[in-house]
């Protein structure tokens, strides 16, 4: 894909581009914890966005998207939220301009194989790839965390999703065969190997794309903040759900709507689960780790309400199978993928089982991706 994208760029713009590979991500456990100052356990994967990009000595940016086969242009003098995929790039450009960093017109070809709306964070890949490309071209000297924060701000201000930092972080910090535990508060992180040759990471795409995903995401965030506010009346030192426990939450239960109570209940438990899960992973206990993934799914489905019948069905299918250590909905939810840890020698059998049962139930085949853990954003000079 890298070579094809480069050739297409040369064909369209008649010059040599800089190539950038920007991956999607998985998250093993720790969902909706990042914006509550909690922990997450993501990794970059082999699904990616590819940029071919070069300056054009104008104030105009011309972006050809291979997936829609259209070229969209915008002027650097008028960067404002705009419908469509170009919004993600414009958001990044705006954030760079806001910081007083120079941006000049560019031509670019954007290609990729990250399925959109599947919970693998194609948007963070678009953002991270562009920040890294422009940092390289203009020698801003940004470090990877600064780049991630710029991508996150772009997402907040242009598409308007008040996301946490996990996706942009994973996209820019990934390392081959390593998972990362990120502390959503301090932004400190540690790498450790995901060393289970007997298992594969299998993503099952429900093919459901919920149009309310981003507005509902923002609602979840507000509900968590509401819970924190109530707890703070008794415990002023609590700054986020990271600092809270179930006793504190139960003290204010009567003041909270049942939805807000359930959301906070899930997040408090999930933050602890990531800690427990990390210890299990380091010990090599994938079976117990998998049980925690199922517990996460239960919470995301019943308490946080970001699952859907199709995703619940996919997880219930996983539960029937001995070759699966654990499964759950991955990412923001409301559709997209489940992540499954599956015995390597049984993957084929599992995939055909899932496909046929899902087809029987919903009349459509899920796409299934057997994925591997890869490097974060890479510049190919
Ligand atoms: C989305 C967000 F972008 C992340 O920050 C994270 O909150 C995730 O949903 C849920 O864990 O991918």
UniProtKB/TrEMBL annotation:
Q: Name one GO biological process term.
A: galactose metabolic process
Q: Which GO terms describe its cellular component?
A: cytosol
Tell me yes or no: is ATP-binding among this UniProt entry's keywords: yes
Q: Which residues cross the membrane?
A: none
* Domain (GHMP kinase N-terminal): residue spans on this chain: 87-174
InterPro entries given in the database record: Galactokinase (IPR000705), Galactokinase_CS (IPR019741), GalKase_N (IPR019539), GHMP_kinase_C_dom (IPR013750), GHMP_kinase_C_sf (IPR036554), GHMP_kinase_N_dom (IPR006204), GHMP_knse_ATP-bd_CS (IPR006203), Mevalonate/galactokinase (IPR006206)
Task: Name the keywords, alphabetized.
Answer: ATP-binding, Carbohydrate metabolism, Cytoplasm, Galactose metabolism, Kinase, Magnesium, Metal-binding, Nucleotide-binding, Transferase
The enzyme's main class, written as a single word, is transferase
List each copy of the Galactokinase N-terminal domain by range.
7-54
Q: Which residues form the signal peptide?
A: none
**What Enzyme Commission number(s) appear in the record?**
2.7.1.6
GHMP kinase C-terminal domain mapped to chain residues: 279-351
Kindly list the GO molecular function terms attached to this UniProt entry: ATP binding; galactokinase activity; metal ion binding
* Entry-linked Pfam families: GalKase_gal_bdg (PF10509), GHMP_kinases_C (PF08544), GHMP_kinases_N (PF00288)
The similarity annotation says:
Belongs to the GHMP kinase family. GalK subfamily.
PANTHER family assigned to the protein according to its UniProt record, in alphabetical order: GALACTOKINASE-RELATED (PTHR10457:SF7), MEVALONATE KINASE/GALACTOKINASE (PTHR10457)
Q: Which NCBIfam families match?
A: gal_kin
**What name does UniProt use for this protein?**
Galactokinase
In which organism is this protein found? Chitinophaga ginsengisegetis
Higher taxonomy: Bacteria, Pseudomonadati, Bacteroidota, Chitinophagia, Chitinophagales
């Amino acid at each position: 894909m890298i070579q094809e994208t480069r050739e297409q760029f040369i064909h369209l713009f008649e010059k040599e581009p800089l190539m950038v590979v920007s991956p999607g991500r998985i998250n093993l456990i720790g969902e909706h914890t990042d914006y509550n100052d909690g922990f997450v356990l993501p990794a970059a994967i082999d699904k990616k966005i590819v940029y071919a990009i070069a300056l054009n000595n104008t104030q105009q940016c011309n972006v050809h998207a291979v997936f829609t086969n259209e070229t969209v242009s915008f002027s650097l003098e008028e960067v404002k939220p705009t419908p469509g995929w170009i919004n993600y790039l414009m958001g990044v450009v705006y954030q760079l301009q806001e910081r007083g960093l120079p941006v000049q017109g560019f031509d670019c070809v954007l290609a990729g194989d990250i399925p959109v709306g599947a919970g693998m964070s194609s948007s963070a890949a678009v953002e991270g790839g562009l920040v890294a490309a422009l940092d390289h071209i203009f020698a801003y000297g940004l470090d990877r965390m600064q780049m991630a924060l710029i991508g996150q701000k772009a997402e907040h201000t242009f598409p308007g999703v008040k996301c946490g930092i996990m996706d942009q972080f994973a996209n820019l910090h990934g390392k081959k065969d390593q998972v990362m535990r990120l502390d959503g508060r301090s932004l400190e992180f540690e790498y450790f190997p995901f060393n289970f040759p007997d298992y594969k990471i299998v993503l099952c795409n429900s093919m459901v794309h919920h149009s309310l995903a981003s507005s509902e995401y923002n609602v979840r965030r507000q509900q968590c903040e509401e819970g924190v506010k109530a707890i703070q009346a008794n415990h002023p030192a609590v700054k986020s759900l990271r600092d809270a426990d179930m006793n504190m939450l139960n003290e204010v239960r009567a003041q909270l709507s049942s939805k807000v109570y359930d959301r906070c209940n899930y997040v408090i438990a999930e933050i602890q689960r990531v800690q427990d899960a990390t210890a299990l992973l380091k010990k090599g206990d994938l079976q117990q780790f998998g049980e925690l993934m199922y517990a996460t799914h239960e919470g995301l489905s019943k308490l946080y309400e970001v699952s859907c019948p199709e995703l619940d069905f996919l997880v219930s299918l996983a539960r029937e199978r001995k070759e699966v250590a654990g499964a759950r909905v991955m990412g923001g939810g409301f559709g997209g993928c489940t992540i499954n840890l599956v015995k390597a020698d049984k993957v084929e059998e599992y995939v055909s089982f899932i496909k046929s049962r899902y087809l029987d139930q919903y009349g459509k085949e899920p796409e299934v991706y057997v994925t591997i853990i890869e490097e974060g954003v890479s510049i190919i000079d």
